[in-house]
Write a structure and sequence with these properties.
By secondary structure, this protein is mainly beta. Helices cover 0% and strands 50% of the residues. A hairpin with a 5-residue loop joins strand 9 and strand 10.
């Protein structure tokens, strides 16, 4: 059974930093792209960042550009999201997911809460 487990969330003041991790178990995803998404209360889930299977072509949403960085370590079957200069509007539950062969995302984790206070 495939499992993704996010960790690293928490409460931080505006301007602070957090590093989220997403560890995969059950199978390797070293041949799959990975992505981070977030969902704030009362809002739709939105794309945050993605990275190719080999660590190439990292990209982030315009709303976090220059502040967030995605990376991965295939030896550890883990993908990371470094979040700097956090803003209250970054408050959300953050999820990781695997990009499948049909280019949709699946195998969602349970999410990790990020709360940024002003």
């Amino acid at each position: 059974q495939v499992t993704l487990v996010e960790s690293g969330g928490g409460l931080v003041q505006a301007g602070g930093s957090l590093r989220l991790s997403c560890a995969a178990s059950g199978r390797t995803f070293s041949n799959n792209g990975m992505g981070w998404f977030r969902q704030a209360p009362g809002k739709e889930r939105e794309f945050v960042a993605a990275i190719n299977w080999d660590g190439g072509f990292p990209r982030v949403a315009n709303s976090v550009k220059g502040r967030f960085t995605i990376s991965r370590d295939n030896a550890k079957n883990t993908v990371y999201l470094q979040m700097n200069s956090l803003k209250p509007e970054d408050t959300a539950v953050y999820y990781c997911a695997v990009r499948k062969v049909d280019l949709t995302y699946g195998y969602w984790g349970q999410g990790t809460q990020v709360t940024v206070s002003s």
